[in-house]
Amino acid sequence: MSIAIVTGMAGGIGKASALMLAQKGFTVVGMGRSDSPNLSDFEGLDVEYVQGDISSKEDRRKLLDAAVAKGTVSVLVNVAGVAPKTRCDLLEMTEDSYDYVMGINTKGTLFLTQAVANQMVKQGEGGSIVNISSCSAYTSSTSRGEYCISKAGVSMITKLFADRLSSEGITVNEICPGIIATGMTEAVKEKYDNLIAGGLVPLGRWGLPEDIAKAVVALCDGTLGYMTGESLILDGGMHVRRL
User: Fold this and answer.
1) pLDDT (tens digit, 9 = 90+) per residue, 152-188?
2) CA–CA distance, 112 with 63 (Å, rounded to integer)
3) Which of 93, 123, 230, 240 is found 20 to 30 A from 3 (Cα to Cα)?
4) Active-site hit among 49, 98, 100, 147
5) 49 is an active site residue
6) The whole model's pTM is what?
């Protein structure tokens, strides 16, 4: 049985990715910090939800153990991520905020990837790892510097593991979403509505979690099986330099 581990499954991109993978026939074992997520969309699908936080070594172990108990782990999708609890100028950023964001977005992603990679190598059947980074990995946003730094770290995590695991038949890629309608962006919806209306995004709309999930599936089901170490930018064209 082919198992897909998905973090951040309680909502947004994680939930959409878990749902599409389950609909594709994967057994999904997902983790989220919520102890009461709405998982009604998963009725009739082979899905297990594990409550936990990937910044915790014990919770990462709990997630992997739950997946291994079900079968062969062939997919890891690292979605879990947080924004700073309070946006503030780079000159006022606190160490506590930095540690909070980096602990989940970068450290948690790194060490969960390490644990799952070791399991995939032990199995000897290859696999696919997908990291959800962000346009913030390469775009300055001085009111949330810790988030940008954390996502730039995810980009290097992707390259490192792609290099190390290529000989094991394990592909490692990242997706860099742009402005996506999720719980994380809800607090700044008016700001981004105005920016999009002003032409920031050439396609003229918010991205949806499903836009990202479709790319996740393509990276996990073999459609893009000859790709590793790559960054897919899904931002509606926002990265295009225009005059």
Assistant:
1) 999 999 999 999 999 999 999 999 999 999 988 888 8
2) 9
3) 230
4) 147
5) no
6) 0.96
